[in-house]
Design goal:
acyltransferase activity, transferring groups other than amino-acyl groups; GNAT_dom; Aminopeptidase; 4 helices; Acyl_CoA_acyltransferase; N-acetylglutamate synthase, GNAT family; 8 strands; eight-stranded mixed sheet
Length: 165
Amino acid sequence: MNLKNVLFFEAKHIGKPGMIREFHVKDTTPLLELFDANTPKYFHPEEKEDLKHYLENEVENYFVYTFENGLVAAGGINYKPEEHTAILSWDIVHPEFQGKGIGSELVKHRLHFIAQQRIYSRCIVRTSQLVYPFYLKHNFKLISKHPDFWAKGYDMYYMKLIFES
């Protein structure tokens, strides 16, 4: 494993180091299990096919957080270079690890990864009414709301973060 693409850190309340690394195809099954653990609280069951499609066809950069040899969180980045825009995609944290700093570490890791490229002036995330307060904590601003976008009862909140020059 290329340690250049690995980040070790200790999330709050866990007290042991975890690791952020790039997604590998072998992570697909554990990632889908992670999705199932968050369904229906955060995802509609029909979204699972969208996640499978994303993993097979749309991944540009996708990172996983492992803890004690298990995958407990993941999140991706997609790009629109012609618009100088990066997009956070498919953030998932196992319910037992939510509120322990892992999601925040994944966001910080990806925002740093994006900033290092120096061509993106903004980052967007399309999330739900259930999770948007998390992104507010990371300085994303709510731009618009779209009721029942993902599925009935799952609204889409479009959020944006502008990078400082």
